[in-house]
Here is the input.
Amino acid sequence: MALLNAKKRDTALNPRQVRAEGLVPATIYGGGMDSVSIQMDVKEFIAAYRKDKNAIFELKVEKEAYKAVVKKVQIDPVSDKVLNVEFQRIQTDQKVKMVIPIETFGDSAAMKAGGVLVSNISVIEVECLPSNIPSTIKVDISTLENYEDSLTIQQIEFPEGVQPLGNLETIAVKVAAPKAAK
Here is the structure.
C-alpha cells in the first residue's frame, strides 16, 4: 500500500494556481460518502503511481485517512504534466473494477517460425477484492504453435479471485503469418 499525504483543497482556487505551487488537484469519491477535493505534491504522486498504477493508496488528508485506487489520471497532451487525479474509495471487503495491463510471456513455436505476435487488446477490465488486484495479467503465449493461433480472454489464466469482465470471446493475442518478402 502506497502512502500519500494530501490536504483538502480550497475549491475557490483555480486548478492552475494549485498546479503552479507544485501540487496536483484530485478528488476522492465513492464508498457511499461525499466526494472530497484534495491537493497533493505532484512529484510524490508520480513516484508512487509509477511503482504500481493499480496499487491501493492510503491517502492521509489532514486528520482522516482513506483507502483508494486511482481511477483516472488526466495528463496534458502537450506538456505531459499531471493535471488532475481521481481516486475511488475502497472497502477491503467489497469488489472493485479495475483495468489491468496485459503482459505476455513464454516461447511460441509459431513466432520462432517467423510469425508476428499481434496484441488485439493491451488491457483487461477485471473485478476483484482490493487485496487481489494484480499489477498485470500475465498471458502465456507458449500454446500458440501455428500461424493464426489465438487466445481469447476466456482462455487466459487469471490470478485467484480475479474475474474478467466484458466479452470473454474477445481475442487478446494471436500469431499472424509473416508477410512474404517482395
About this structure: The longest helix spans residues 42-51. The chain has two domains: 2-91, 97-176.
